[in-house]
Amino acid sequence: MYVDDKRIGNHVFEVVDNGEYQQSVNVAEFRYRVLLIPAWRFDHSNTEQWADDCLQRFEASTRVNGRQIDVSGTRNGESFVIDTGDSTSELPPCVMSFAYWNPRFLQQARLLNPQSGDYLDVTVERLPTESLEVRGQTVSAQAFRLRAEQLELKLWYSEQYEWLALESTAKGGRIIRYELS
Fold first, then answer.
1. Dihedral angle sign, alpha carbons of residues 12, 118, 168, 62
2. Fewest 10 Å CB contacts: which of 30, 59, 172, 180?
3. What is the DSSP string of 46-70?
4. Would you say residue 2 has pLDDT above 60?
5. Distance CA 25, CA 69 (A)
């Protein structure tokens, strides 16, 4: 993960498919310093279980500059129940999160943010194909723009729809970039 051209940490995604369901585990650790002074610290872990492109359950734990946020959710019959610790809410039974690894998430009108438990309206726009450097090689990449409330992401996928990179703009106009390594 980079802010502008400065590496600030790692975000590791692992997806395991056992045939019956997929489990995605992602862990992020970011440290941003200005003149060696810690300006921002972000730690996040999220485990999701999926079946038939529907989220079955998840547990997310996020710590931002010392503030702890824990959110979980479980598919329960005809709904998906979100628990933020302060409240619970019910969503439709088949929801998707911002599961970049699954390009079908780009077809959704709403996505679940597991960090907050918010169920967000999203719009996705297909952009022109671009050349992108991945693992030291230039590849053709299909670009998309995803918008949700104050969030705007640009995502790139290979011709086989493998997720390659993500970019967003942070406060102050800084560019946050993930790329496949």
1. negative
2. 172
3. EEEEEETTEEEEEEEEEEETTEEEE
4. no
5. 17
8 A C-beta contact, residue 154 and residue 172: no
Residue 136, CA distances (Å) to 5, 6, 151, 167 in order: 16, 18, 29, 18
CA gap 102, 17 in Å, rounded: 12
102: tokens are 């699954």
Rounded to whole angstroms, the Cα distance separating 96 from 94 reads 7
Residue 105 and residue 140: Cα distance in Å, rounded? 21
pLDDT tens column, 116-138 = 999 999 999 999 999 998 888 99
pLDDT digits (tens, 9 = 90+) for 136-172: 899 999 999 999 988 899 999 999 999 999 998 877 7
Per residue in 131-169, is it b (16+ CB within 10 Å) or e — as a string? ebebeeeebebbbbebebeeeebbbbbbeeeebbbbbee
With beta carbons less than 8 A apart as the criterion, state whether 109 and 21 touch. Answer: no
